[in-house]
Specification:
Number of strands: 8
Shape: globular
Structural class: alpha/beta
Distance between the termini: 49 Å
Strand order of the largest sheet: 1-2-4-3-5-6-7-8
Order of helices and strands: EEEEHEHEHHEHEHHHHHHHHH
Number of helices: 14
Strand content: 5-15%
Helix content: 40-55%
Amino acid sequence: MASHAPQYDSIYSDSDYRLKYHDAGGDKLLITFTPRYGRDADDRTGFGAGVFEKYGWSMLCVVAKWDHWWQPSGIEEIVRISNNIITVRNYRQIVTYGMSMGGFGAGLLADRLGAKRAVMVAPQFSIDPHTPPYERRWIKEAAKIEFMNNDMDAALKGAAHRIIISDPWHPLDRVHTDLFKGYQTCQFVSVPFGGHSPADVLKEAKMLRKTIIELLDSSFDPKQFRLLLRKNRSLSPSYLAMMSDKIWRRHPSAAIFLLDKAIEMVPTRPTFMCRKVGLQVRMKDWPAALETSKVGLKLFPNQHSLWKSYSEALTAVGEHDEAISAAISAQEARPLGSGLIASR
């Protein structure tokens, strides 16, 4: 959904946050929260900048300079500044929006920002590993965070209507979605086989912008959404890849066919080649895994997962010296990775 952004003013900055503002006129304000980036950076752009202004939305973009899930105390100043702008500009239609970490922020802070709705794509209920659902995916990030503003239960007792877009069959996200289901203010939009990135499926199916705009202005029709998704889902290589992951045990040939289709659709994207060889390793189809690895590494020589799978396949067929060499290449491609080291 990236596009050329109009002029934004940076109206607040500290070591943890930046707040950017664009006034499009009118009474509609969209407050967005950046997703997790997996790295620290001061140059992160505002989420949704360059997309929604043309639909009449003024924008407040809350930017995290590192992946902190909105816990540092500077969020209080951001809430204060934002509410002052809302009062001065007399915004009447206020919506919060974000994906993953950003979805958590959109849901957590909706009522404090006077929002009537929060659009939350694959959000977490909490990433604190000591509280439900005892999330472990972002354990390294959580270890750096002092959880001071993490009470989603209290936030969901507010009046804002939360709309949660998620994959109902993705086990790691479903435990969060199940917790949200305990609150009457939450509505759910299902994107099956979307994984933790249902927005990717919607974008590839040419539905993301339409869906989000309709959710923002309350014109969303769940039945029409489901019909269009069913019609367009085959346009999404991400959807095909996730479906492959679900069916491979019972239909291995069909699973490989779906991944081949995804690779054909986006040949410059290494993700699907990595998924294919990874699946062949799980199937213990070592000749196929070796062949796919060789093809993939010619195209994407710096892909850690391809080298890792290649090393596993070489080990399985007894090519130990080559397996060790491939494992070393895997380490070099991602020094901080899991690091398979083949052994004799």
